[in-house]
Amino acid sequence: KRMKVSSSAFSDSDCDLPSPPPQASIHDSVAVTPPPAFISPYRPSTQVRISPPVSTLPGTEELLPDTEELETEEFGLGIKSLSSSSSVMSRMSSKSSKSSSNSVMVDNAGKENKKTKEEKELEKLKKLEEKLNKQKSKDLDKQSSKALKEAEKVTAKQTDKTEVHKYLLVVLDPSTVSSPPGSEILNLLSNPPDSKAESVFQFSVEKLPVPESLCWRRKILSYEVTDGQVQMIENWQEEGRALVFLSADDLADKVKDESLRSWAVNAKTKLGGAHVTLMVYNYNAYFKTDKNAKERVRKAKVRGEDPARKDLAVEKVSQYKIEEALVSLSLDRIADHLTFDKATDKGWKDCGGSVFHQTRAVAEAPLKLKKGLSGSAGFSFWAKADGKDSVAPKNLPEYWKQVLMQVSSGVGLEKASAIASKYPSPAELVRAYSRCGSTKECEDLLASLEVRRTDNILGGTRKVGPDISRRIYLVMTENNPNAFLSKK
Questions:
Q1: pTM higher than the cut 0.90
Q2: Residue 267: per-residue pLDDT
Q3: Distances (CA, A) of 214 to 126, 240, 245, 364, 400
Q4: Which of 203, 209, 332, 419 could potentially form a cystine with 270 if both were Cys, beta carbons 3.0 to 4.6 Å apart?
Q5: Can you tell me the distance from the alpha carbon of 4 to that of 23, in angstroms, rounded to the nearest whole number?
Q6: Helix or strand or coil: residue 148?
Q7: Interhelix angle for 426-434 vs 466-477, to 10°?
Q8: Biggest alpha carbon distance in the chain?
């Protein structure tokens, strides 16, 4: 039997109040031991604490659990423990799988680390190779730069005044060597007049297209760079000048049969269009023999004797005809000429000296041409801009005065200044001529122009004059290039 226990509570008030109903006490949780679960021999066992539900409803009595309820509860707890152990096993297996995967990841990371080390070593080797290649390229560049500088020095020496004789070869035809001035020519080429080493020229005897000819051959050095290597290239170039030796007798025969012009043109063609100079030797001796023969014939006639047949058989070509033929060749730009004779004291030294000086001039031609082009831009008549003779716009009036002064020697600075002050440019003067009504008016346009005298202290004025006025008119308006300024 269950007994009800009542308790009274004391209060401060004097009246007795009915006591409140007793409240059910809340018991602590009870630990229940579950049935033994499957525990792996390789893993530590875990204890599971399960607390049963606690009733917190007021006004209820605490009752002891029945055996059936406990059995059902214990059976449920066993199932829960089994489920918990299986979850623990799954967690452990997942942990083992994670650990194995982690070990695989670590192995892969180690391999990756190994690969990166190998790659680093390869990169180091590549960097070393690049450094070596750069060093080699630098060395090659240094060597090529040195070789290039040396090649530039060698090529620059070709125009050096003291080195030009090494790059020019004098080529002589065998008949030139056997001619009267041949021995002296060879002597002066080997032993120059100034006795300097830079004046000694090399020569070669070869068969040339034109007999008794002489030409020059220049050695030209150049270089090219291939794969960092500097290679020197040597070429021989024929110069554009040639000498042809000709005796006065042969020249007279060609003038006599009128074959000199065709012979000269043929020789120029065979020599490649070079500038030909005829070296005529025994020139005065030819005319001297003719003069002596004529003198002997005259004396024989005076004495009443018959002249010798050899003196009568001599029919010499006049000096006028020979000189006319030579000047005609020069004007037509076929060939110019030089004449020589054997001196009693020097022999053919004049002819040999002429060949030597022409050889020297040909050797120094590139240097002189280079200086001329750099100094005056290729035009020797072009006035510099900083001089009074400049053709700059500010000096055009002075240039116009110089043009007027070239018309005649009588046009001085005073007359040219007077004309330039009245007509500041050639166009102004031409327009003034166009406004004239007749040729006579044009010729006298400048005749009455006053010129201020500055050659004396008193001064005064004078006029340009009709002759100078007519000459200036012809210069400014004449279309015929063969017209003469002077009156016929």
A1: no
A2: 94
A3: 66, 12, 8, 18, 47
A4: 209
A5: 12
A6: helix
A7: 100
A8: 217
